[in-house]
Each structure stands twice: as structure tokens, then as C-alpha cells.
Amino acid sequence: MVPEDAPRQEPADRAVTEAALFDAFGGVRGMVETVLPGLLFVTIFTINKNLQVSAIAAAAVSLLLVVVRLVRKDTVKHAFSGVFGVAFGIAFALITGNAKDFMLPGMLYTLGLSLAYLISAAAGFPLIGLMLGPVFKENLSWRTRNPGRKKAYTKASYAWGVILLTKCAILFPLYWWADTTKFGWVAIALKIPPFLLAVWLTWIFLAKAPAPIDVFAEMEAEEKAEEARKAAATTQRREA
User: What residues contact residue 41 under an 8 Å CB cut-off, 6+ apart?
Assistant: First the structure.
């Protein structure tokens, strides 16, 4: 077990943590793919108030982003998640005839995610730890063997939950009371800043935490040790 007061990460480890966090949450490209379809939808609707044209443009750019990733043979998970989000938004808006509903699935997802972060942290199974454990090759070792790291994941999960819940507290009243274009621009403006704040706080908490336990390296070491024991036993039998 790694005690909470174990040595903190070195600068090189912090750089690795920063890179892993950025990659896990999509990086700059992932942020662009998250914002661009909605930005295009709101921009076109602001100009011509045509729901169908706005929806087609958002769907087209979302699919184009996936095609670009496929052509470049990049990971498509962030782009595909964006496509599904846009598809649900378009479906809601076209069914109701209300352009505001393009944002509604994303808002409901954000609300559910904020509650998941808060509840999981309170239950001792912080969602950020479950998400990032495999990224740092520690899996669930932080729960029982690295209490300082579990504490950091708990703080990060609370931070994500509070930030996303605050975002919802701003957007849901506007959804009911503001006009469509104003609501749309506020929703677009709140896409990236809360996300960056949550990622930054996560990095702060993890940078001060003990380094992760590489369980994969431990398993490899155990396998090599077992092979060495078997080889030694075979040699002894041959010599006997």
C-alpha cells in the first residue's frame, strides 16, 4: 500500500499525467469536434431561423469529422460520441419543431453525468478513478493500495460534479425563459470553459497525489519471476 504522505510525482510524471488527461478527454481536437456541430447549428439558425437547414449542416459537419478521423486512421470514439449527440439533438428538435431542443439531450446527459460524479464520489467509487485507472495502468489499485490517489480521484469527481451541476443550473432556466438564439449562444459558450476548469482541477489533484501503481508492470514482473522459478526447478531436477 502507498501511504498518503508518499513522495509526490516528479515533474516528468506530472507531464505524463497532463498528457494522459488531455488524451483521455479528447484533447484540442476532441473539443473542436464537440463544439463545431452545435456552433454551426446556432450560427445558421441565428441567420435564417431555418431549423431544417441548421440540422442538416450540423449533421453534415459531424459526419465529416468522423470521416476525417477514419481516413487518418485516428481513434474515432470522441467523434462518434459527437455524432450520436448531434443525432439525438436533431431528432428532438425536428420532432418538437423547437430549435432549443437541439441542446436538450446534451443538457440531460450533463445533468446525469454530474449526479454520477457526485454519487460515485460519495460512495467511495469516484467515477474519475474508474475512467482514468486504465489510462494510468493502475486499474482499481488506487482503491485499496493507494489511499492518497483515491483521495485525489474523489476530489476530482466532486469537482466535476459541482462544475457540471452549476452549468445545468445556468442552462435549464435559460432553456425555459430565454429566446432560442440567446439560449443557443450561451449553451455554446459553456461547452469548453467548464470542461477546461474540471480538467485543470483534476490535474492539480493528481499532480499532488502519489504516483499510480503500474499493475501491468507488476503482473509482468510476477510472470517473469514465475518463469525463472520454473526454470530453476527444471534445472535442479536435471542435476539431481
Answer: 54, 55, 57, 58, 89, 99, 102, 184
* Same domain? 147 vs 204: yes
Of 112, 141, 127, the residue nearest 219 (C-alpha): 141
For 195-216, the pLDDT digits (tens) are: 999 999 999 999 889 988 888 7
Q: Do 83 and 62 form a contact (C-beta atoms < 8 A)?
A: yes
Q: Which residue segment(s) compose the domain that 233 sits in?
A: 103-240
Q: What is the pLDDT of residues 95-139, one digit of tens each?
A: 999 999 999 999 999 999 999 999 999 999 999 999 999 888 898
Same domain for 185 and 123: yes
Q: What is the DSSP letter of 209?
A: S
Tell me which of 99, 126, 145 is where a domain ends: 99
Q: Measured between alpha carbons, how far is 240 from 238 in angstroms, rounded to an integer?
A: 6
- The whole-number pLDDT of residue 19 equals 67
Mean pLDDT for 86-101 is 94
Amino acid occupying residue 220: E
Q: Is the same domain home to 196 and 115?
A: yes
The number of distinct structural domains making up the chain is: 2
From 57, 79, 99, give the residue that closes a domain. 99
Is residue 232 within 8 Å of residue 183, measured between CB atoms?
no
CA dihedral 95, 31, 197, 168 (to 10 degrees): 0
